[in-house]
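FAQ

Q: What does a record look like?
A: Structure on top, sequence underneath. For example:
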């Protein structure tokens, strides 16, 4: 369910051809579908309709202000991990009172800023952090709303780099220690113990890890409700998406749905979790990022050169690992489609960027249609953890971003000027 499709032979985002966007805005170019963001948010929101809930979009997955505004207009909240993300949400028209502030390393300045803006809750990851928040709230003469992040020690069966809910990870406080922590925290005068939070990992394609975690944590939440009057349980984000439609039910790869299994949908996720959650009588918070933004964006890139070496066919494109690092960093799979549908034989191809690292690739040995220099390709499902993880490596400027809505398209981030990259730098005085 997304709004990137071929109309005739040409790839479209909603009612707009990608080629027309390339002509207007150039490449590399991120393109976002507002309708897909909307549909995904609503699908989750509606799946939870039977229970008091708030869907807090994980800003880290896509923080473009136009995307955040879309979520704000739908009544959504936000999962934030820095003062910068909070400022973005506010700039985009979001409500600080619907922001849950996560992260293991909140600084004093960040806590102070968030308290002044009145965030919904701090998701607290350690006892020193609880004490720090209490002290700052006391100084500001306000009450800080807090939830403690429980680490349920549950395997998420996803990539090691995005597993967060086991005792190998730096996140949260161990399940067995939680009640003691709440007891001690209840003596801190400037805290309101408002909830309990967890997040076990990302790109989880099966309901089983979520069920296991909820089954383990629900009784704990019930006890904390009875003893400390908590109001909500946040079950985090992590719902996986389909990166390769062709392999949807067959691939054992980490990024894909398990062999023979159906894709995790909001309906199946909710059906498995709601009975247990409803019985708690708590408000339920969700922190989905990828589920909402992942399939809502693509990265469009132009082929600079076709190069054949002794062993391989390379397409050298104008996007690189600095624009989309997921293949280099996680061996992640992104479907690659030509902007104009091609017939004919497929050719085993490596799509690579211009950066001077062998890790700068988008696929290896992938059967792709025959395309040539000047043609453009779409790297699909790049809306989550795409642009936000971009860097200026090799002094490459960050790409432009466009939001499409029906037949309209607007530039929502201008291409970075190359001089902006070094605007904050200087030579030392003795180098005159
Ligand atoms: N809540 C917390 C506390 C998180 O740490 C995260 C993601 C989310 C919610 C949202 O998770 P999602 O629904 O998007 O799975 N860069 C990696 C993903 C890192 C995820 C970090 N935490 C990637 O490109 O796959």
């Amino acid at each position: 369910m997304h709004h990137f499709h071929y109309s005739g032979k040409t790839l479209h985002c909603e009612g707009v051809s990608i080629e027309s966007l390339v002509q207007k805005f150039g490449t590399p170019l991120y393109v976002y579908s507002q309708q897909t963001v909307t549909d995904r948010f609503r699908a989750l929101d509606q799946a939870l309709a039977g229970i008091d809930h708030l869907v807090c979009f994980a800003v880290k997955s896509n923080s473009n202000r136009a995307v955040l505004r879309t979520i704000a207009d739908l009544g959504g909240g936000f999962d934030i991990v820095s003062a910068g993300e909070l400022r973005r949400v506010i700039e985009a028209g979001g409500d600080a009172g619907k922001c849950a502030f996560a992260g293991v390393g909140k600084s004093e300045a960040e806590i102070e800023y968030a308290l002044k803006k009145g965030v919904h809750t701090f998701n607290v990851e350690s006892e020193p952090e609880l004490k720090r928040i209490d002290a700052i709230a006391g100084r500001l003469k306000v009450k800080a709303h807090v939830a403690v992040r429980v680490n349920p020690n549950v395997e998420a069966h996803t990539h090691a780099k995005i597993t967060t809910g086991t005792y190998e990870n730096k996140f949260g406080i161990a399940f067995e220690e939680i009640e003691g922590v709440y007891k001690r925290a209840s003596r801190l005068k400037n805290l309101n113990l408002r909830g309990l939070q967890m997040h076990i990992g990302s790109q989880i394609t099966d309901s089983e890890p979520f069920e296991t975690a909820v089954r383990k944590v629900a009784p704990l939440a019930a006890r904390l409700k009875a003893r400390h009057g908590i109001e909500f349980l946040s079950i985090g984000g992590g719902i996986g998406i389909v990166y390769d439609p062709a392999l949807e039910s067959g691939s054992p790869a980490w990024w894909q749905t398990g062999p023979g299994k159906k894709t995790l949908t909001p309906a199946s996720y909710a059906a498995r979790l709601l009975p247990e959650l409803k019985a708690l009588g708590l408000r339920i918070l969700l922190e989905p990022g990828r589920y909402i933004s992942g399939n809502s964006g693509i990265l469009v890139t132009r082929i600079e050169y076709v190069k054949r070496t002794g062993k391989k066919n390379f397409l050298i494109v104008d996007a690189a690992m600095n624009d989309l690092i997921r293949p280099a960093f996680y061996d992640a799979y992104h479907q690659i489609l030509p902007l104009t549908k091609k017939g004919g034989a497929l050719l085993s191809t490596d799509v690579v960027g211009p950066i001077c690292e062998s890790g700068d690739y988008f696929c290896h040995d992938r059967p792709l249609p025959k395309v040539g220099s000047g043609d453009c390709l779409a790297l699909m499902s790049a809306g989550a953890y795409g642009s936000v993880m971009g860097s200026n490596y090799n002094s490459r400027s960050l790409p432009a971003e466009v939001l499409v809505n029906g037949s309209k398209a607007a530039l929502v981030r201008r291409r970075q000027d190359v001089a902006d990259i070094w605007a904050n730098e200087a030579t030392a005085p003795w180098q005159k």
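Q: Is there anything notable about this one?
A: The first helix runs from residue 18 to 25.
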